[in-house]
Design brief:
This protein has one domain: Alpha-Beta Barrel (TIM Barrel). The chain is an alpha/beta fold.
């Protein structure tokens, strides 16, 4: 019997050609204006053999920026740029969600005219080799703790970005609450030491994400809104001793929305905090009732097993799809995958090299 992974799947009211998703992959090709461009449209169109594309993390406001040449979705020009990308993906037969991003403390004052990056608490990222800014590589700074009165404005930025995503023609939005960025840093006790209603407890640390999802689901139907979490992740100096309690609470609470899917970085290839046993997809299924997307380090074999066992409805692939734009075709035909792209090309602003120049076997170029 053929694996469900490569078979069509109905995600609520969206018909997907298969259960393979393209993971969000920051590639740094938008230029300093942060506007999605023709080269990006080509890149995404090439990879539209997957059932669902999730765009690279896309910032919701100038304050949210923290990566050189990453795209945004907070101006009319940005909406227009993304519309061309969305149209290209739709013409190629896939669906596409935009991932909404605020980098939080994983930013630098060089991105903000000297203003410090913001975070739940004034706790800097430790044990990292620093951040690449428009002025070069620099150490992380101690962020400024957000005032309680500022949080409605950040929620409003998510709402505005979600509204802009609808104007650009996206099929939905994924709220990035993983990998140590702003919403994840509010979730975790390691980075959130607030004494107001957004800190001090598991429930309070979840509050900001809950409020963001509540407001975004007033713009989009809930079944077109997704959330990404990384309970196992050590990236950006994350990992909290009570991670199992915290993320179980988050997933349980998210049940009330009826989301498109819950995107969980259960794999350990992105770094594991080693504070206990990994949070598995089976663990997710014990507390979360809707569709689940697994991610990080999956192969065809492990992805097939996860979907066929019922641990996940979808699996996202990241690194393999960089050098294999025809990933699903290769899976179906048993064609060997191309070698992983060199890391120095992942975020290069040099254009097509290592971005759109990978051959597709047996498919139109």
């Amino acid at each position: 019997m053929a694996s469900k992974l490569l078979s069509p799947y109905t995600l609520h009211d969206l018909e997907l050609s298969n259960r393979v998703a393209m993971a969000p992959l920051t590639r740094g090709r938008s230029g300093p204006d942060r506007i999605a461009n023709e080269l990006m449209a080509t890149y995404y169109r090439q990879r539209a053999g997957v059932g669902l594309i999730i765009t690279e993390a896309t910032t919701i406001s100038p304050q949210a920026n923290g990566w050189v040449n990453s795209p945004g979705i907070y101006t009319d020009a940005m909406i227009a740029g993304w519309k061309d990308v969305v149209d290209a993906v739709h013409e190629a037969g896939s669906k596409v969600f935009v991932q909404l991003w605020h980098t939080g403390r994983a930013s630098h004052s060089d991105f903000h005219d000297g203003d410090l990056p913001v975070a739940p608490s004034a706790i800097p990222i430790q044990g990292d080799d620093g951040i690449r800014t428009p002025q070069g590589k620099k150490p992380y700074e101690t962020p400024r703790a957000l005032e309680t009165s500022e949080l409605p404005g950040i929620i409003a930025d998510y709402v505005a970005a979600a509204t802009n995503a609808k104007a650009a023609g996206f099929d939905g939005v994924e709220i990035h609450s993983a990998n140590g960025y702003l919403l994840d840093s509010f979730l975790q006790s390691k980075s959130n030491m607030r004494s107001d209603q957004y800190g001090t407890s598991v429930a309070n640390r979840y509050r900001l994400l809950d409020e963001v999802v509540t407001e975004v689901t007033k713009v989009w139907p809930a079944n077109r809104v997704a959330v990404r979490l990384s309970p196992n992740g050590g990236f950006n100096d994350m990992g909290s001793p009570n991670y199992r309690e915290q993320f179980s609470h988050v997933m349980t609470e998210l049940n009330k929305f009826g989301l498109a899917y819950l995107h969980v970085m259960d794999g350990l290839a992105f770094g594991f905090h080693e504070l206990g046993e990994p949070f598995t997809l089976a663990d997710v299924k014990k507390v979360y009732e809707g569709p689940v997307m697994g991610n990080c380090g999956y192969t065809l074999s492990t992805a097939t097993a996860a979907v066929d066992s019922g641990d996940a409805e979808l699996i996202a692939f990241g690194r393999p799809i960089i050098s294999n734009p025809d990933l699903v075709h290769r899976f179906k035909e048993g064609i060997e995958l191309a070698p992983e792209a060199p890391m120095e090309d992942w975020y290069s602003p040099t254009g097509a090299k290592g971005y759109t120049d990978f051959p597709a076997v047996g498919l139109p170029q």
